[in-house]
Amino acid sequence: MTRVRFEFEGPRGRVRAAARAMGEAASAGDVVALVGPLGAGKTVFAQALLRGAGVPADVRVSSPTFAIVHEYQGRTKVLHADLYRLSGPESLDEVGLFSLGIDAITVVEWPERAGELVPRETVWVTITRVSPLRRRVVIEGEGPRAESLVAAAREGFASKPRRVAQ
Questions:
Q1: How far apart are CA 45 and CA 1, in angstroms?
Q2: Residue 166 CB: number of other CB atoms within 10 A?
Q3: Of 92, 96, 127, 145, which one is least surrounded by beta carbons within 10 A?
Q4: Which residues, 6 or more positions from 38, have their beta carbon under 8 angstroms from its beta carbon?
Q5: How far apart are the C-alpha atoms of 149 and 145, rounded to whole Å?
Q6: Distance between CA 29 and CA 123 in Å, rounded?
Q7: What is the pTM of this model?
């Protein structure tokens, strides 16, 4: 399988544009894992990705820290999970997140808590806070879907950012 990687640093608007473009390119079955410390911008990235996936601007997209998973309807079902409160992969077995996501786009914050349950063809997005207004983002994965999502993010990052509803 082909491994792809796209790394960039830029203002939050460019990061949101890349995330939105990924959401526009995403389809049911895709899994996007968001990695980074508290305050890095994982939820902001998820919000923009969900908007790109067709979740309407009037629908509030928030971190599902306490609910674990929120389900949204865009052009397909979208699952947004936050695994921060889970103690480990055994807790995720009860939720069944990755089996639920077969017919959905699945966006996961704190995926490292899922261990080996994360599907192999997941697209990994690592976000690092460089300054209050700048982020370093690495997007990588294996296979044709990863190639498609990485290419979309690259195009989105290069385009003129537009205002993204939260």
A1: 26
A2: 13
A3: 96
A4: none
A5: 6
A6: 11
A7: 0.88
- Structural domain spans, the chain: 3-158
Is residue 86 within 8 A of residue 149, CB to CB? The reply is no
Give the 3-state secondary structure of residue 87: coil
CATH number of 3-158, picked from 3.40.50.261, 3.40.50.300, 3.40.50.2300, 3.40.50.2000: 3.40.50.300
- Taken as a whole, the chain contains a residue count of 166
Q: What is the mean pLDDT of residues 133-142?
A: 92
Band of residue 36 on the pLDDT scale cut at 50, 70, 90 = very high
Q: Are 41 and 128 in contact (CB under 8 A)?
A: no
Of the pLDDT bands very low, low, confident and very high (cuts 50, 70, 90), residue 163 is low
Contacts of 121 (CB under 8 A, 6+ apart): 31, 141, 142, 143, 145, 146
